[in-house]
Amino acid sequence: MRDWLRPVLASAALLILLVLGAMILFLTYKSVPVLSREGLSFILDSGWIASEGGEEYYGIAAALLGTLYTSAIAVALALPVSVSLSVFVVEMAPRKIRTVLEGAILMMALLPTVLYGLWGLTYLGPFLLRYVMCPLHGSLGWFPLFSEEPKTGNTILTAGVLLAIMITPYMTAIIKDAYSSIPREYREGLYALGTTRAEAILVLLRMVKSSIAVAVVLGLGRAAGETVAVSMVVGNTMGISISPFRPGYTISSLIANQFGNAFLYRLMPSALYGSALILMGISTAIAVLGLWLARRWSIKWRI
Amino acid sequence: MTVLVALAYLVHPYLIAPSGVLVGSGATFPQAQLEAWMSSFNNAGFPFKVEYVGKGSGGGQSDLSAGVVDFICTDPPLSSELWARLKERGDLVEFPFILGAVVVTYNLPGVDRLRLNGSVLAGMYMGYIRYWDDERILALNPGLRGVLPHREILLVHRSDSSGTTFLFTSFLSLSSEEWRRSVGRGKLVRWPVDELGRGLGGQGNLGVSQLVMENQFSLGYVEWSFALQLNMPIAELSGKSGDFTVPTVEGLVEVADSALRILDRGPEDDWDGDVDVLLETAFSSGYPLVGWSHLVFYRGDGRILQWLSWIREEGTTVPGYAPIPDWFWEEVLE
User: Fold this and answer.
1) What are the residues whose beta carbons fall under 8 Å from the beta carbon of B94, sequence distance 6 or more?
2) Is B81 in CB contact (< 8 Å) with chain A?
3) What is the mean pLDDT of residues B93-118?
């Protein structure tokens, strides 16, 4: 039994490694023309100058910063919501409400991203413009982040908030599973020590911080990779600014916007593969960091 | 990418199409018109059907080179070099077959008539005409003094590489020396207003239309047929003559008529460079943002001629397009 099972299962592992390796090789190979021509200025410079037969120049700094900015906003908003939601579902919600909530979270995770995009464009963007950006600019306009006068709902902030809504179900699922799998004895022990409910929850959350790290990594990865919804709300323009009230770009939406006609140009396909390679590099770095934290913080239950 | 291409070919209709189908691909600009023609033609009892895949002019040209389609539509004509290369393979013909226009649309509550010209539009997209009540806009619209708000203008443009952008930026280059020198024209350009945080990019005509409709105080350019379909306001534009007009079918046909007489080319000829002639004619004598799309195919397949004769006799033009002048059709179908 063991003799045939092992190679069968190992081949799945091998396949994953092969596919990943092939993708990295392919992207690197395709990025060579643009990287060898432009070097570091490909990621440090901003501009997307295409011309059939003429001079071309591609710099993805604006899109790169946009990706980091929107993903950071998304995780910063989604993390407290996911943690609170997980604790509420496990600790406090009556069984019926818990079932409804779990169903809703699952449904949110399954909705097609283009629906989020359409909703973001027609409702979320105008809503944030009117009830968040304008009031923030009006009352805290001296603060550099809010000093830009908001003019449109298609901004970095809208993309970040939309992404937060999209990654919350995933992050919640991971945190909730970890939180609810803490053995009962720990909870009983805590209460036996005379802790309040809030104190007990804080201790229990600290026990699952490795899973929270994994949730953050997955959330960041999904946010950075999301394409359709973001390109519908982010505004798709190359400008570098610290203001979240401005339109911007992300690497994924850049690829989605430009890929269709990229082959009209000599260097643009390479620039797009190069952007994908950079995106992959960032995701890998985040994943490595997250997994390292998760391993460091992981706890073996001892009862 | 190889995998993507393989997948695309797997699901592509023309590889699984039965032989009774005339298959074309290419520009999306004439797609709405082609679809209207095809749906009547395909139900008119002919022994074959026509199918079209809109994938962009570039995609159409590479399909023609690969020999996988019966005809293609392309907004810019084949380059002289490609024309010469493909002509060696057979009796290739090319000619403009449908007219369209690009319109400037806007989202300004309470304003149903707006006049603009190329130099004001260039100033807006460069960023130095910043507010709707700018004197340069008011000078063209004296009746709107007090109506146009003191609000910043949001400028919407295509984010993908597109022939619509090429027509629009050509018009700006013809109108404004400053635009021509600092930005120029192309399917994809660097929009100065983006760096000021007042630009927005939308994918496709639909993306631009959605952004204009969702953002108050914005302005953008889309294909005429889209603006009509979505019931969006259309700005009156002027070219060299200074007369303001919205596109009309008669106006477009007139411009194409003059341009075709100046060009004096037939289906056997290389059409490279014709778009400039069309744009300059339009700029000096009518609505300035006129475009056309070319049909390219190898002669020898009787079905294409049969379809074209049907178009000439029975095909109706849908809103947002105008037919090529009749005498030119006659010359083509000789």
Assistant:
1) B77, B78, B83, B267, B269, B270, B271, B294, B295, B296
2) no
3) 95
